[in-house]
Amino acid sequence: MLRAWIFGFALMCNANGAFAPVAEASVAAFTEEYCSACHGYGSAEGDVDLAAIDVITLQQDPELVRQLLHVLDTREMPPEGETQPAEAERTWMLETLRPILHAAVADSRVHVRTPIRRMNRFQYNNAVVDLLELNCVVYSLPERTMRVHQDYFQPETGRMPKTVKVGNRPLGKSQMIEPRLAGVAAFPQDLRAEHGYDNRGDHLSLSPLLMEQFLKLGQSITDSPDFSPKTVGIWNRFFAPPENYADLQQAERLKTVRDRLQPFLTKAFRRPPQPRQLERYTDYVMSSLADGRDFTDVMKQIAAAAISSPRFLYLYDRQAEADDDTGLQPIDDYELASRLSFFLWGSLPDDALLALAAEGRLSQTEVLNTQIDRMLRDRKLKRFCDSFPAQWLQLDRILSSVPNRETFPDFYFSKYRLSMHMMLEPLLLFETVLIENLPITQLIDADFTYRSSLLNARYGPLGTQAKSPRNEVTALTFTRQPVTDRRTGGVITNGAVMTMTSGPDRTQPITRGAWVAAVIFNDPPEPPPADVPPLAEKPEPGEENLTLRERLAAHRERADCRGCHEQIDPLGFALETFDPVGRWREQYESGLPIDASGRLFREYEFDNVVEFKDAILAREDRFCRALAGHLLSFALARELGPVDELALDEITESVSAEEYKLQALIRQIILSKPFRTKS
Question: Where is the DUF1588 domain (predicted)?
Answer without folding.
Answer: 489-587
